[in-house]
């Protein structure tokens, strides 16, 4: 996070407003604010990361890659930036580079320098996740997202928590960020059908119908009688047939 004390009052206001726009899915307003801030301050990794995510959402993969790389130049262990850049390389078909970045992100996410044992970390992570569940249940999604992220800071390989984070992000109007979380789950375990179904739903919400269909087809191979998957497959098949008429 940018050091707010290093910013002028006007810059601080621009940063806070732009970040709020980013968290609420207002792409254009967020990008305008961050671009204004970068004219005078380009040393904050999280600003470059958020700009990169926004540019990828707009389909400008080249500019998005440059912004994410700037974030990593400033903070080479920035796990979210590594994952976002991994996603771009995956979309380009550079799967080896994507896998390398994903592995770096997993390594960067591990808690360092802590004397707490693994069992205690797991207990604390599950407690944080339970707090996230409680917030999500009453519609306080921003607080839920924060709680899930704290849980994953302790145990980044707890795929069930990451999946709940992804659902919460999508329901908060942040489907692109949600897709990154679901893809990270599937990199850790490609056989998690629920995560693949959720990724398909997220692609569908983004209008990426063909990719949604592909995820649901793959999910159906591992669970051919699951009714929700069959329903989603029929839905996209009808849409694709309609486009081809």
List its salient traits.
245 residues, mainly alpha, Serine Threonine Protein Phosphatase 5, Tetratricopeptide repeat, 2 domains, 13 helices, 77% helix
Question: How would the blueprint of this fold be written?
Answer:
Blueprint: H1 9-23, H2 27-38, H3 45-57, H4 61-74, H5 79-92, H6 95-109, H7 118-137, H8 141-154, H9 159-171, H10 175-188, H11 193-205, H12 209-222, H13 227-244
Helix pairs in contact: 1-2, 2-3, 3-4, 3-5, 4-5, 5-6, 7-8, 8-9, 9-10, 9-11, 10-11, 11-12, 12-13
Principal-axis shape: globular
Give the integer mean of the pLDDT values. Answer: 86
What is the CA-CA span between the terminal residues? 49 Å
Q: What is the helix tally?
A: 13
What share of the residues does DSSP label as strand, in percent? Answer: under 5%
What fold name stands as the CATH topology of the largest domain? Serine Threonine Protein Phosphatase 5, Tetratricopeptide repeat
Helical residues, percent: over 70%
The CATH architecture classification of the largest domain is: Alpha Horseshoe
Extract low-pLDDT stretches: none
Order of helices and strands: HHHHHHHHHHHHH
Radius of gyration: 19 Å
The CATH class of the largest domain turns out to be: Mainly Alpha
User: CATH-wise, what's the superfamily of the largest domain?
Assistant: Tetratricopeptide repeat domain
Number of domains: 2
SS-derived structural category: mainly alpha
| Strands, total number | 0
The main β sheet shows up as: none
């Amino acid at each position: 996070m940018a050091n707010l004390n290093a910013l002028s009052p006007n810059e601080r206001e621009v940063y806070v407003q732009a970040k709020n726009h980013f968290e609420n899915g207002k792409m254009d307003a967020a990008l305008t604010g961050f671009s204004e801030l970068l004219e005078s301050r380009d040393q904050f990794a999280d600003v470059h990361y958020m700009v990169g995510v926004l540019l990828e959402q707009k389909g400008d993969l080249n500019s998005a890659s440059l912004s994410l790389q700037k974030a990593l130049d400033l903070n080479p262990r920035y796990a979210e930036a590594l994952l976002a850049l991994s996603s771009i390389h995956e979309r380009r078909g550079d799967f080896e580079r994507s896998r390398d970045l994903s592995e770096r992100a997993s390594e960067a996410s591990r808690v360092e320098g802590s004397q707490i044992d693994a069992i205690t970390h797991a207990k604390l992570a599950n407690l944080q996740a339970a707090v996230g569940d409680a917030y999500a249940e009453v519609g306080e999604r921003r607080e839920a997202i924060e709680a899930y992220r704290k849980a994953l800071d302790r145990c980044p390989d707890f795929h069930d928590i990451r999946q709940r984070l992804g659902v919460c992000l999508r329901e908060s109007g942040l489907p692109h960020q949600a897709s990154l979380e679901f893809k990270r789950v599937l990199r850790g375990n490609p056989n998690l059908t629920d995560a693949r179904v959720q990724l398909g739903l997220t692609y569908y919400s983004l209008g990426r119908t063909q990719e949604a269909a592909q995820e649901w087809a793959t999910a159906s191979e591992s669970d051919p009688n699951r009714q929700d998957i069959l329903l989603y497959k029929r839905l996209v098949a009808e849409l694709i047939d309609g486009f081809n008429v």
